[in-house]
Amino acid sequence: MDNTEKKQRQVVFWPGNKVVAEAAVAAGCRFFAGYPITPSSEIAHVMSKRLPEMGGKFIQMEDEIAAMGAIIGASLTGQRVMTATSGPGFSLKQENIGFASFIEAPCVIVNVMRGGPSTGLPTALGQADVMQARWGTHGDRPVIALTPSYLDELYNEVIRAFNLAEMLRMPVFLLIDEVLGHLSERVEIPDPSEYELVERPRPTVSPEEYYPYDSSQGDVPPMADYFTGYRWHTTGLNHDKTGFPTTDPVICQAEEERMERKVSGNLELIEKYEEYMTEDAEIGVVAFGTTARAALVAVADARKKGIKAGLLRPVTLWPFPEKPTRRLGQRIKAMIVPEANLGQMIYEVERVAGCNGPVVGVNKIGGVPIYPGEILTRIEEFA
Amino acid sequence: MAVSYTKYLRMYHMPHMWCPGCGIGIIVKAIIRAFDALDWSTDDLAFVSGIGCTSRAPGYLDMNTLHTTHGRALSFATGIKFARPDKHVVVISGDGDATAIGGNHLIHACRRNIDITLVIVNNNIYGMTGGQYSPTTPVGARAATSPWGNIDIPFNVSELVKGAGATYVARGHVGSGVQLERLIRGGLTHKGFSVIEVLSNCHTQYGRRNRIPDAIDLIEHISKSTVSVRQAEKMSPEELKDKYAVGLLHQDTERTEYCDDYNKVIEHAQLER
Ligand SMILES: Cc1ncc(C[n+]2csc(CCOP(=O)(O)OP(=O)(O)O)c2C)c(N)n1
Ligand code: SF4
Questions:
Q1: Residue A301 belongs to a domain with what CATH number?
Q2: A232 and B262: CB-CB below 8 Å?
Q3: Strands A171-177 vs A145-146: parallel, antiparallel or unpaired
Q4: What is the reported pTM?
Q5: What is the ipTM of this complex?
Q6: Are A164 and A231 in a shared domain?
Q7: B230 SS3 class
Q8: Cα–Cα distance measured from residue B269 to residue B91, given in angstroms and rounded to the nearest whole number
Q9: How far apart are CA A70 and CA B77, in angstroms?
Q10: In A, which residues are within 8 Å of B63 by CB distance?
C-alpha cells in the first residue's frame, strides 16, 4: 500500500468490543439482537447507539435464544445481522444456530470467550469454546469460526465474517476472548474502498421457477428475501430443494452433503492463517487468538537462544487449517499447542499434523493469560 | 363473496398431516377467511410457527412461511417484524409451544406490544409428541404422562397474555368458525400485539384419554364449556367455574406500538448525530 492511500485511514485507540461493533456497522450490519453478558456487553452498547444513527435496528431480547431467533428472522428479510454473547449465552443459542445452519440463513455470531464451564469466570479470558463452536449444536453442519489475534486484524475479520456468511448462506462465528474484547490498541480503520462487501446470492429466476435449495445452482443456492414475491417455505425439518419437509434418505444425504461442501469446497476463500519462522522450524507451535501473541514472543525468544521454533497461527480456526498444520507437523521434532483451556484444539493438531514427535499442550485456565515464558519453557524442553 | 381457498393454500402439499377432524383445520380455515376479508397480498404476509401439530400450518399456506424451533416462533417473528414493520407477521402456536417452552417469549412479546398477531391453538395437550400434559391440561385430566390424573394447575392463557400486556386479547373455539374468523380479523387489524386463544380439539391424544375420543363429540364438549363475554359478565365466579368466556376479552388502542416507538428512536438518533 502506498502512503497516499494510507493517509486516508482513520487511526483510533479502541477496545476490541468497540472494534467489533464499528466494523460490523462498516460491514453493512443493520440489525443486532442480543442479551447482556460479560465480557461481550460493550458490543451491544455500541450497537444500540450506532444502529439507529444508521437507520438500523437494535433490540435487546428476553434471552439469547430469542436474540438468535430474531437475527435469523431479520436475515430472512435480507438484512446483514449479528448477535454477540459469551459462553453461557453461546450454549443457549446452539439449537437456533443449528436451525440457521440448516435453513442456510446468513448471520454473524460473536462469542467473547470467558473462562470456565457454567458461569465460570465472567470477567476473565478463556478459549474453551473451541469444540462447542465446532460441535455445539446437534447434527452435522458446516462451521466457520474466525479467531483474530490483533485489533487491526479483528476489524478486517468482522468484515470477512459478514462476507463469508452472506456468500455461503450460513452462520459465521467470531471467537474472540475477554482479553481481545477489552484491550485497547491502535487500530487503523481501513477505508471502505479497501474492501468489498459481498451480498448473498439472490435469485435471478421468476418466483415460479425458484427453489430455495436448488443444487443445480451450485452448492450455495440463491436466497430470496422475504416479501419479494417468492413466498418460499423454511423449515428446520430435513427438506428438499423446494424447502418442504422430506424423509427421503437419498435427498437427506445429498442435501446435508451439499451443505458441508459449502465449506469443504471453498477452503481457499475461508482458510486464513499466519506462519512465523516455520520454514526451517524444528519445534512447531500452534496457537490462536491472544494466546498466539504470547506464542509469537516465545518463538522469537527461542530463536534468540538458537532454537529453531516456528509458529502457525490459525486466523480461521474452523475449518481447521489442515494443510499448513501437516506441512509443519511432518518437518518438526515436537509440536507445542498452547491454549487457554484444558486441551481442545490439540485434538485437531494431533489428528492432522502427522507429527513423528510428541504433540504437547500448554494449558492454563483460571482466567490468566498464558505467558511467553511458559511456552518458551516447553519449547526448550523439546529442542 | 365466496372465498377462494386455493389462492392461499399450497394445494400441491395436500393431503395435510393432521388427523381427520382435528380442530387445527377449522382454525386455518378461519385464518384464511380473515386474510381474504382483508384482501392482504400473500407476498406481504409472513406466517411463522414453532414445533407441534399446530406449527405445521404455515407449510400449507402460500405466503412467506417459516417453521422454526419449538417455542421460539415469536422471537423469529419479532426479528421479521422489527426488520420490516411495513409487512404483516402472523404466528400460530400450540399451547405447549406458546406457554411452556415459549412462555418467556410470549410474555415479552406481549410486553413489547409489537404488531404481531398470535393464534394459540389450545387443545390442552402436547398433540404431536403423543399426548403428554401441557400447561393447559385441566387438573385431573389424563395424559400420557399423567396416567393418574394431572395435578398441575393450568394457565388461563387469555388472562396470562392480558396480564403480560397484550393489547388485543380474544378467545374463540372450534365450534364457531364464524366468530373465530371475526376475532382473528380483529387481531390482524389491531395495531399492537394481538392474541387469539382458540379452544381446540385433539381427540386423538386428549379426547381418547379422557373419554371423548370422537372429534365431533369433543368439539361439542368444548362448545358447551363456552359462554359469551356478555353472558359471563352476568355470571358469578361459582357459575363460571369450568366455563370459558369467548369473544373479545380485552383491547387497548391507546398504547403505542414497538416498531413505531423505535422509529422515534431512529429519528432522535439521527438528529443528535
Ligand atoms: C427443544 C424441543 N423440545 C421438545 C421437542 C418435542 N416436541 C415436539 S412438538 C412438542 C409439543 C407440541 O405440543 P403443542 O405445542 O401443544 O402443539 P400441538 O402438537 O398440540 O399442536 C414437543 C414437546 C422439540 N421438538 N424441541
Ligand atoms: S394429534 Fe391431535 S393436534 Fe395433532 S393432528 Fe391429531 S388431533 Fe390434531
A1: 3.40.50.920
A2: no
A3: parallel
A4: 0.98
A5: 0.98
A6: no
A7: helix
A8: 31
A9: 7
A10: 231
